[in-house]
Amino acid sequence: MNASFPARDLGNTRVIALSDGYLEVGFNMLSNVDEKECEKIQRDAEISELNAVHINTFLVRRNGRNILIDSGAGGVKGWGGRLVANLGKLNIQPENIDAVLLTHAHPDHIGGLLNSEGEAVFNRAELIISSDEFNYLESDENFAAVSDRIKGNFLLARSIFKKYQKKIRLIESGEVFPGIFAIPLKGHTPGHTGYRIEGDQSSLLIWGDIVHFPHIQLSRPEVAIAFDYDPQMAAETRSGVLEAVSSDKVLVGGMHFGEQAFGYIEKRESGYGIVHKE
Hints:
The chain has a single domain (7-275), classed as Ribonuclease Z/Hydroxyacylglutathione hydrolase-like (Metallo-beta-lactamase, Chain A, 4-Layer Sandwich), CATH 3.60.15.10. It contains 8 helices and 16 strands. The protein is globular and about 50 Å long. The two termini are 18 Å apart. A hairpin with a 2-residue loop joins strand 4 (52-62) and strand 5 (65-69). The chain is an alpha+beta fold and 278 residues long. The protein has a 7-stranded mixed sheet.
């Protein structure tokens, strides 16, 4: 049934990567790197659409529960929008989702929580988000301080929080569900969070937006993106995570890893690389 989607069995837990589609990001949005170098890295990695950023979500199936990590963009700004159809290919309807864990509240991760009428898509689901992320976005002082583009992101997040308000659970770190642990990975946003999923045979880290362009930012971890709330902290977090997962040979799932979704991080002569293997 899951043949068309990348998946990993962790023993008593199955994690399936579901694509929501793509968005486009210009290399001028990256800092600490030359655009020509970005093009070369992408071409050397045999990336055909140089500026395409793939959007993954992850479905965790454990103990009869369906837990989604992020919701994709849902068509916001013309991005993505494939998640519900892909869930349908697994015979899963939106009402079958028990919880949605958010890595953070950027539009390409939360847009899929509302339909085109502005109503909750996953109307039975508990919505789980970092308290730092939630409080940052609910603050009128923060709203007043940001650009008009980012104000739009705040308003989208607030509209989602309102629709799910009776089912929101704020977290900091530690066990969220049995075998699923929240790991603060701050920098990209104030409450950016990864989730470590521990099965009875193996484990996996869903690391959210540690990278947007894997080949570029793994080989050059200092490369920041304009969407980073704190670019220096994001780069420091990235370097720390890369060191840890490469040393410990931790399987990683990334929202922007491309359609293969899962991989191991290897230390290279210069920076790091990704190895996709079962």
